[in-house]
Queue: 2 jobs
Job 1
Amino acid sequence: MSKTLVNRLSLAALALPGLMQPAQAERSEETYNTGFQYGHYEESGDRMKVDVFELSAAAPIGKAFTASLDLIRDTMSGASPVFNVRDADGQVRQQISGASIVDQRDVVNVGFSYAMESVTLGLTGGVSGENDYLSRYFGTNLSWDLSKSTTLSASASYAFDDVFPVGRTYRKSKFNQQYLLGVTQVIDKNSLLQSNMTFGYNQGFLSDPYKQVFVENAVGSSILDDVRPDKKFQWAWLTRYARHFKDLNRAALHADYRFYVDDWGVVSHMVETSWDQPIADDWQLTPRFRYYTQYEANFYSAIFDGATIGRYHSSDYRLAGFGTLGGGIKLSKNFIMSGLIKDIKLQAAFDYFDRKASYQLGGNDSGGFDDYSFYMVTASVNVKF
Amino acid sequence: MKSLSLKIIGIVCVLVTLSACTPVKPWERGNLALPQMALETDVHEAALRNHAFHSKEGSNGGYGGGGGGCGCN
């Protein structure tokens, strides 16, 4: 390893829980960081396509402060399911919106952190705007080294959202709050464990103005707007594990598991693993895998009838029972330098996912009328000065 | 009741894990400081992926706040 890299790893080691000495009591960024990321998301069947362009920058201010700025532009186009109908053969199929959706999402995020001897405080905020949606949000976070091996994390975040759907005259609001409590623990010299719990409470207009439901009655059928409760309580528990393998060219195994439950009846499990394999000359290859499964919301049905339609009703495929299975590969290359530019990192990744009703844990007999697949490509460059 | 049981199981699991930890000296922590050992090796890519998953799934959380909602279809 080069001397520069050894020096950098030593500095990174100092940033681990409990390692900072009082005389070196800073954990702010020590370099100016800038980055650009491009992402492309595309669903099968000529549905949604999204291009993402992101510029980011972070800068140290004095010994203890770090400021960051993040600008994102998403351009979306394509079609999306609106409701489900039963065809002449009695099979359920999706009614797609037609390739009429064209939108743009612009995001500005700012962040500010202050590092003290064993505590780091952060403030974040931002605005995200689309032609039919506006979100304003802010949050605060705390990281506290309880001992040489244990760090406690806590955060609170709040979002004030407005939706003003195209073709409608109303404007509706919702308020989301989320609280996190977590602990990161050094298990031994080769492994780390983090466990986070988040509690979320959403209130206001939580329905989707672009989704509808189909109701079959003995005397005919009707189409109603999607109507969801105006409150939702969410609980998520995420556990992350990382282990180093010195004998395998310093590879690292990452394994995450998340359990989620909310009072709409959705219960989900998510497992994600990756193997970060350094190859040579600061090249790294990372294969990764993700499985997600959820159980449907209490008020979800593919098609309703006079007996099943209630005050709350939705046929949104995102509230159905299903599973998503997939993964991909990420390739990165670091150029470590000693001049004005200290580090350049190039990265590219491709992931493919299959979303099927039959992948739901325990099975699902809905027939797979809402199955689809999607892929994501990302490419980025990051420069440190 | 089910939720309470799960919380209790969670707390017990964390406590058991913590009690199994081996003290690690500062000079033994080089492996943990490697970039590939960061719990989030690329925060911007992770945020993009999480946003995509969150937009298409009925659940979210665990990774902390930051970022607002969207009118995602």
Job 2
Amino acid sequence: MTTTAESTTTTSQDETTRMTMAVAMNSALDLALDGDEKVILLGEDIADPAGGVLKVTRGLSSKYGTGRVRATPISETAIIGTAIGAALAGYRPVAEIMFMDFMGVCLDQITNHAAKLRYMSGGHSTIPITIRTTVGEQRFGAQHSQSLEAWFMHTPGIKVVMPSTAIEAKGLLASCVADDDPCLFIENVRLAFSQKQEVPVGDYRIPLGEADVKRPGADLSVITYGPAVHTALATAETLADEGIDLEVVDLRTLIPLDMASVMDSVAKTRKAIVLHDATTFCGPGAEIAARITEELFGKLDAPVKRLGAGYHPAPYAPSGLSYLPTSDELADTARELLGY
Amino acid sequence: MTDTLPTPVPGGLDAQRLREAYRTMRTIRAFEERLHEEFASGDIPGFVHLYAGEEASATGVCMHLDDRDSIASTHRGHGHCIAKGVDVKAMMAEIYGRRTGACQGKGGSMHIADLSKGMLGANGIVGGGPPLICGTALASKQQNTGGVGVAFFGDGASNQGTTLESLNLASVWGLPAIFVAENNGFAEATASAWSVAADNIADRAAGFGIPGVIVDGFDFFAVHEAAGEAIERARGGGGPTLIEVKFTRYYGHFEGDQQSYRLDEVKQARETVDCLKAFRSRVTGTGLLDEAGLESIDGEVFALIDAAVAEAKQAPRPTRSDLETDVYVSY
């Protein structure tokens, strides 16, 4: 476990520059394309002038050609299947599925092929693909807004990564592309442009499977990842005024899941809330909460709580009725647990 | 089906290549006939779907392929494996669920793969293979190897979106991809005459702007010729082709299938249009091969299958720890 994102070892200590998350991911892809002829990109609208729906691939087809940065028809299954086939032939494809809700269209190629071919072939197949996708905003409606990472955590054979900051987006995406297993890299519309940080300009990688304590604290552990990390950090500032000291653990990678870091944190604070934008019911928090309870039962001062999206599709209407867990809900739940 | 071989031999196959074709078809037939018996004995732990009757398709296509080329297969994949050069003993051991199998017993009949032979895998998902072939074909195109990707799929898969997306993408990108629709008349128990909303699967090629060809699947030479033209075109940058191979499978969808959905067409096919009988008749008629030579191949094939079964039955089973590896390269 590292203590802060910034302290993570870099493979290059070169200059940094201020980047949005979208630009940081573009930088990771640019370096991957530059460093390895076998890296190719494919997806809908990824070539210039569109450059991707969040502009993450902007400029890359102009720089590396439309042979390596390939626009596709709207054919999610063919996109993923092509990436898998090219991987079997020695390539390192990065495929983009525009929104995570569209994963249902190509789920068979991901779960029955990318995730299982290695096992079914007795280890003879290697599928070094990265699937980039985006979780949208509630205002896009129910078919563009759901955090579906639990679907993929439930299928052995694929890694699942969800960054919360620009620097981690670059470091984790670079690691996904270089990884020999299929990786699902989940981006977020809200964070793509709101997150800005000093990010290394050169090659920079963060190992998969390592959580990061974004805020050390003594009283209660918030286990979280992705955009909810920022909900947790904001709540921690609010509660600090009340004398409540939250520890915020950013998982960063859901598969492999760094349970050792989670256990270290909760063993210290003896109280835990798992917070995410995924649906609470059968969400990643259900597994994490169960594991905490199984391993730390005697050390807990309070029940492990889960906070996530409600058990209904994402509604279009905002009207203050947030589909996603809010800072207020997290603060109330923290206060409740501190009362035990 | 004629009794005499036109001169020159279609496809320009010499005696040695004709013997190879016969050996491949005979190996597939013997492998499947033996599995039919072994399955009935209860020794095979899982599902098997037999390719008997369809040998001319895998053989006629794969005779044109080499190490540059890859194939994607189906749940009925034994024939494709054998035709692409996968070791018969490793296949048999795999079907018996043994550690010595092609996939260490973790794949089974429906997932036999051998990447070293360009055999991406049999596939338990109907329509799972065509998208993969777009990827290997893309790799060949990127590297200018002249290699092709061949997707074998059935009449059932011809109705899957995966197949149609792949045909479209292969055409849009001009990929060296060959789509071989093996229409054996039934998708499980559903007749293709009902389920395919066109007179022929090959007719759909026009909708993707690529050539579509219909071939008599019992005629090795017809398949070989059609596949040769398509593969040569693809190797030269001419893009994909959809080949529809029409025939009948000799057994049920799976071993144990009661086949209430069809009548006695199999008996008739075995007697009148069987690909092995037709092949023998044509090649011996020219004097290129003689009956004694073919029977010698038969004997070698039967001995190989006997040995494969005997070795598979004696081979060790995977251990619990074997079954927990190969999920990830690193974790």
